[in-house]
Amino acid sequence: MITIQELEIMERGLLAVNRAKELGRPILFSEVHKMDTINPLSFFNIGKEYYRGERFFWKDPTDETVLIGLGISKQIQLDQASDRFFHVEKEWEKFLEDCLIFNPYTEIGVGPVLFGGFSFDPCKDKTDLWSKYTDSLFHLPKYLLSIIDGKTYLTTNTVCTPQEDPYLFKKINEERNEILQSLEENEQIKSAGLLEMKEIGPEKWKKTVDEVVKDLTEGTLKKVVLARELRLVFDDQVEAEGVLNNLYRQQHESFIFAFESNGDCFIGASPERLVKKQGNEVYSTCLAGSISRGNTEEEDQRLGQMLLNDQKNLIEHGFVVEMIKEALEESCEEIILPDKPQLMKIRDIQHLYTPVIGKCHKDASLMLLVERLHPTPALGGLPKEEAVVKIREVEELDRGFYAAPLGWVDYRKNGEFAVSIRSGLIQGNEVSLFAGCGVVADSDSESEYLETSLKFKPMLRALGGN
Questions:
Q1: Is 272 a catalytic residue?
Q2: Nearest to 142 by CA among 236, 242, 71
Q3: Which of 22, 103, 239, 442 could disulfide-link to 32, CB 3.0 to 4.6 Å?
Q4: Of the candidates 453, 454, 451, the residue with the CA atom closest to the CA atom of residue 313
Q5: Bridge-partner residues for 227, per DSSP?
Q6: Per-residue pLDDT tens for 213-257?
Q7: Would you say the pTM of this structure is higher than 0.90?
Q8: Cis peptide before 341 (omega within 30 of 0)
Q9: Average pLDDT for residues 356-379, to the nearest whole number?
Q10: Catalytic residue among 241, 272, 316, 371
Q11: Phi-psi bin for 63: left (phi > 0), alpha (psi -120 to 50), beta?
Q12: Which residue from 212, 204, 202 is spatially nearest to 380, judged by alpha carbons?
């Protein structure tokens, strides 16, 4: 393991303090070191000792980008409905002004990276369930491990004040090296036993589905996505490290994420990208329509073909494709879109899937794209605004960060957001799981209920349940 030298950080830190004195305000001092290979799960796990409640984990489906953050150097949080995407972006840009960044590498996701997300609907009445998360919450970590295309980098972010004691940088270097040395120790992760599973109002949820179906046949709404909650109780505190480790093994082809805030942890394995931006290239995913996996290869193929030819699911998928295409057209010069959906097969479910690639205008920002795309018809409905209002009126669940954009943006304006489905909220010895389905005019409440039950499976398995 590389040990980072004290002299280097002391010299650079003094430059940052002098700049803070010149400007008369705090500034960011960030430095990047290339490292030997580090196990990302080990880095997250060791952070429990130093920064429990202040960690995040992110892995994309192809392992192209893995990000793990420990500690909080800067927090951006907003509890407001209007222009929240714009305000987060502007606060991030302002914070980066006059900063000192020592990063000789060109890879995206290396250097200062802001990680976090937004609630599904900031106008929805709040409950205690999501009290630890504001409607917009982002963290710049003290230590960021970036594994980009198999290469490993460690970014250290420090906010320096004009009165900063230079001894701070000595302490940072000591702590950083201590963390790196601790990675070689064996971690013991205890697992909690499941005591109880409580479905929250299943019959009432089915009745709501029936009522919405009636609305769909009589009004202008085409689709409404309704979600429900499953509450799990365990015999001991649920450790995010163990759940994350299980998701990493069981759902490796998904976006795997964990985001801690004030003792709670939002965690999951989502198959769905909202948007990715690399320079002027933009990528999105249309994911709607689902069916179970088969027990044999023959049955799996038969189910897949059923899905590819199912009119209800094809119509639902078409809604998503059209909306994402329209949302990206405002920011893109060119969009590449296949004519027909294909299958995305993950462990428990097959989805109809259409990838979207675009070349965006120079002034198109990642946060603007997130705002235009959220929520897609796969998570909200159609028409977009009308569907969100209907969800707000009839859904008892406080979705919080469920089904909302979660992801990261770096200081060069690259980044990626996923739609945070297949997820749960860990709160001590209890966990809430969330799952939803698209309700259209010919939906059957019992079938939709069974579909949501299927979508609980990935998180239930990761938590040790059935």
A1: yes
A2: 71
A3: 103
A4: 451
A5: 436
A6: 999 988 889 899 999 999 999 999 999 999 999 999 999 999 999
A7: yes
A8: no
A9: 91
A10: 272
A11: left
A12: 212
